[in-house]
TrEMBL record:
Residues 519-547 are annotated as: Disordered. Keywords: Exonuclease, Hydrolase, Membrane, Nuclease, Transmembrane, Transmembrane helix. This is Exonuclease domain-containing protein. GO terms for molecular function: exonuclease activity. InterPro entries: BRCT_dom_sf, Ribonucl_H, RNaseH-like_sf, RNaseH_sf, TerB-like. Residues 5-166 form the Exonuclease domain. It comes from the Bacteria. CDD domains: DEDDh. It holds the Pfam family RNase_T. Gene3D superfamilies: BRCT domain, Ribonuclease H-like superfamily/Ribonuclease H. It comes from Corynebacterium pseudogenitalium. The chain crosses the membrane at residues 594-616, 622-648.
Length: 653
């Protein structure tokens, strides 16, 4: 035994193959008498996906700010130096550490390990760590956590050697000669960097597919840049999630805007924060001018220096907000604010665009209620938290289940409780249940001629395209929106969510709309008392674009233009009378996707079949070999058929 005692090591990894990487290291240093000298742990950035998070609970978000193995290799060697190395199933730890030291180009002073699994098989008759711990009555506080597993293994070693007299004197010690300073580390639950902290506060995606892409995106942005390898990985994740290029751009812009809103919460954007957000925008190909406008947002209106929210104050929301409305509602409720409609006692109305002309915005102006942006509201909430952080917190009362607003009568009672007041969930439920029904049927207070409000964001280009393709916008269905150029599931969900927000915020009829309703219910002339015939009134002239506005033809061209061409938002409904309907693009064929997946399945099955023949079944007589052969043949057949269909589809375009 080395004079320095033992180093008990446990690792969590992305998988079991030699291509997999370490994601967490836990080390327990024991003195020669088996008492604990100290412990050390850190998460590791594996620079690849983490497909087995369900086992060790480590996600891509957790390791965004974690060090690389090469950053900790020298210090890890100094911890192991002169000690007997111990692990349960030690061949696993030895193999992964050997591979990682080699990749890092670092000194490898590993030696023969003391394997507690061999000892438990010999002295206890079991091999699994959990079974051995049960026999020894040792509690593992967090199974599949590197440090907790290492601590449990250290106790097991003490149980075997001190309690049962197992001799472990014969093992050599590790030899690492290079000196090393303390290494950066990030334990589970440790504090990440500023960008990492912000990404953790962002609302979760509404679908698992989008969540997978956002998790990969968060991981890639650890260094505020995206390498070619990371870009390819992001592309693969987006393809697997069924996201179109436009949907990916929408997620990237949404992600950046949400980071900017969260960054404003403390009321100031530092030089470091500005540089970080601009670097992220450049890496994601998000318009830098857009990001600068978010960072330079005017501080006019109520801010913590001139205005304060107090528990019990009423707040209201309107428009398609960057942070989803239901997330803001949860945060406001947690701050003991009353969330509801606009009343005379309402403290503030939080709007996606403070110049909004929604029903709620008009009510707010009539009642002298301040209309503020999300960034201002974030500052007000943060000021409330700072003023009450030292106050005792009362146990919250059980909240009554939140139902969807009553105008969404198509929702069953059960579904209404399930979606709650979330615009995104209501929109998703409508798309799932009624994809082919006109969107004005989504709420009882909507009519075909109503127009969703422009937001001043990238989604407005698709709003313009929608209005030009469908003069009465809400006569279109969710399926019709998917037929618009560049609109995939993400964009479609955003557009339908804008319809939901329109219904929730209230729609006021224009004077022309009210006149039209009166004309519809006017009795026939023969039934009226004799009166002088009024002079015929000319039909209302269609409004012409002002000199500083785009014509509908220019709007359509802008809608199909590259993504970062600015499209001015219009405060009036788009004029369909001046538009020549464009040809509706056909849906994209899925044959290409099927072909790609079939080729991948074929190649993987063929490689595994070859390995099977070379290793344990050269005669191909086993069940596994047969299944791999069938998978290869099926993949080839599917790839052939889908490839021909994809080629025919391209020739038809």
């Amino acid at each position: 035994m080395g004079r320095n005692g033992f180093a008990v090591v446990d690792l969590e990894t992305t998988g079991l193959s030699n291509q997999d990487r370490i994601v967490e290291i836990g080390v327990v240093l024991l003195r020669p008498d088996f008492t604990v000298e100290r412990t050390w742990e850190t998460l590791i950035q594996p620079e690849r996906d983490i497909p087995n998070s369900y086992i060790h609970k480590i996600t891509a978000t957790d390791v965004v700010d974690a060090p690389l193995f090469c950053d900790v290799a020298p210090y890890l060697g100094s911890l192991l130096n002169g000690r007997t190395l111990v692990a349960h199933n030690a061949s696993f730890e030895h193999r992964f550490l050997t591979n990682e030291f080699a990749r890092a180009g670092a000194e490898d002073g590993l030696c023969e390990w003391l394997d507690t699994m061999r000892l438990t098989k010999q002295y206890m008759g079991v091999g699994k760590l959990s079974e051995a711990l049960d026999i020894a009555r040792i509690r593992n506080r967090f199974a599949h956590s590197a440090l907790a597993d290492a601590e449990a293994t250290a106790e097991l070693l003490r149980y075997l050697c001190v309690g049962n007299g197992v001799d472990v004197e014969k093992y050599p010690t590790a030899t690492f000669t290079a000196p090393a300073a303390e290494a950066p580390c990030l334990p589970r639950g440790g504090e990440p960097s500023w960008a990492g902290q912000l990404s953790r506060t962002l609302p979760t995606a509404t679908t698992k597919n989008e969540a997978d892409y956002r998790a990969e995106l968060t991981c890639a942005l650890v260094d505020r840049a995206i390498s070619r390898t990371e870009m390819r990985r992001l592309e693969s994740t987006a393809i697997a999630a069924g996201l179109s290029a436009d949907d990916v751009d929408a997620i990237n812009e949404e992600f950046t805007r949400q980071l900017a809103v969260e960054a404003w919460a403390d009321g100031v954007i530092t030089d470091e924060e500005r540089a970080t957000l601009l670097d992220i925008a450049e890496a994601l190909n998000v318009d830098a001018q857009l990001v600068r406008s978010l960072l330079d947002e005017s501080t006019s209106g109520p801010t913590p220096s001139t205005f304060a929210l107090r528990p019990g104050d009423r707040v209201a929301f309107t428009g398609a907000l960057d942070i989803p409305r239901d997330v803001w509602t949860d945060r406001a409720t947690a701050a003991d604010l009353d969330v509801g409609g606009v009343t005379r006692t309402c403290a503030v109305l939080v709007a996606a665009n403070p110049d909004s002309m929604s029903g709620k915005a008009k009510q707010a102006r009539e009642n002298n209620v301040p209309i503020i942006s999300e960034t201002h509201f974030a500052q007000l909430l943060k000021a409330m938290e700072d003023s009450t952080e030292d106050a005792p917190v009362a146990a919250p009362d059980a909240a009554a289940p939140v139902s969807a607003p009553e105008q969404f009568s198509w929702l069953t009672t059960e579904k209404s409780h399930a979606v709650g007041a979330s615009s995104a969930r209501i929109a998703a439920a409508w798309i799932e249940q009624h994809p082919d029904r006109p969107l004005h049927e989504i709420a009882d207070n909507l009519k075909p001629h109503h127009v969703p409000e422009a937001t001043g964001r990238g989604i407005d280009r698709y709003l313009a395209m929608w209005s030009l393709e469908h003069p009465e916008m809400l006569n279109a269905s969710a399926d019709d929106l998917l037929d618009l150029h560049g609109v995939g599931p993400k964009r479609c969900s955003q557009l339908v969510e804008m319809v939901v927000d329109l219904a929730v915020d209230g729609v006021e009829e224009t004077a022309e709309g009210e006149a039209a309703v009166v004309e519809e219910v006017t009795p026939e002339p023969a039934e009226l008392p004799a009166q002088p015939a009024p002079e015929p009134r000319p039909a209302a002239a269609k409004p012409r674009p002002a000199a500083n506005e785009l014509t509908p033809e220019e709007l359509l061209a802008a809608a199909y233009a590259p993504l970062h061409a600015p499209v001015p938002a219009q405060s009036t409904p788009y004029d369909p009378a001046l538009v020549t309907p464009a040809v509706t693009p056909k849906r994209r064929s899925k044959s290409g996707k099927v072909f790609k997946r079939s080729v991948i399945i074929t190649v993987v099955s063929f490689v595994l079949f070859g390995l099977c023949l070379e290793t344990f079944d050269p005669e191909a007589e086993s069940f596994i070999a047969g299944m791999l052969a069938l998978a290869t043949l099926a993949g080839m057949l599917t790839a052939g058929v889908s490839g021909v269909m994809a080629l025919i589809g391209k020739l038809r375009r």
